[in-house]
Each structure stands twice: as structure tokens, then as C-alpha cells.
Design a protein that fits this description.
There is one protein chain. With about 110 residues, the chain is mainly alpha-helical. About 65% of the residues lie in helices and about 5% in strands. It is built from 5 helices and 2 strands. A two-stranded antiparallel ribbon has the order 1-2. Helix 2 packs across helix 5 and helix 3 packs antiparallel against helix 5. The longest helix is centred in the last third of the chain and has 23 residues. The protein is globular.
Length: about 110
């Protein structure tokens, strides 16, 4: 993909790089995620902190901040114009992020 378009305007270079990184990560996770849908019952503490990119000693505020940053990063609207498959992968990723946050804040 040479240029990304969104709402009839070209995305800036720094946004282009970030979008490419997100697309690469979504595509790389596609194969392992195809078999399983994220669910609260399959969530573990280790998995939740890995998903949010935090450590065992993270405070409630750090958990919330990591959650908000990840949701913004992988929001399906960011890749919606690039096709249904990427949007579906982003939806799955945001579901996983939501489940991780719920798991950690209710534990």
C-alpha cells in the first residue's frame, strides 16, 4: 500500500508509519487468533498484563492509562478504510484489550 486515504485526505507521514505498524501487528496476529475468539473465561493475569503491555507492579492509574492508549491505537475506525478484514482484526484486538482491562480491574 503506497498511500492511505481517510475521509478524502492523505494521512500524514507519522500517521502512515503508525498505521503500517498497526496493520503489520494485526496481520501477524491473524494466524494465531483465527482459531479462538477472545473470552473472559480464557483470560489469565499473565495474558492480561501482556495484552496491555504493563508489569506486575502497575497501579490502577497505569492500568487505565495503558488500556486507553491501546484502545486508541487499535480502534477499528483507524483501519476501516483499508478493508473489512483489517477492521475485523482490529475489532477482535479491541475486544481482547477490553477483556484484559476488565479482568485486571475486577480481579
Amino acid at each position: 500500500v503506497n498511500d492511505f486515504e481517510r475521509n478524502d485526505r492523505l494521512i500524514e507521514d507519522d500517521q502512515d508509519d503508525e498505521l503500517r505498524r498497526i496493520i503489520d501487528e494485526l496481520n501477524n496476529s491473524k494466524a494465531k487468533d483465527d482459531a479462538e475468539e477472545p473470552s473472559f473465561g480464557s483470560m489469565t493475569y499473565e495474558k492480561a498484563i501482556a495484552i496491555l503491555g504493563i508489569n506486575h507492579n502497575s497501579t490502577g492509574n497505569e492500568i487505565k492509562s495503558a488500556y486507553l492508549n491501546k484502545i486508541k491505537e487499535y480502534h477499528p475506525d483507524k483501519v476501516a478504510s483499508l478493508g473489512d478484514e483489517l477492521k475485523r482484526l482490529a475489532e477482535k484486538k479491541t475486544l481482547e484489550i477490553n477483556l484484559a482491562y476488565q479482568f485486571l480491574t475486577k480481579a
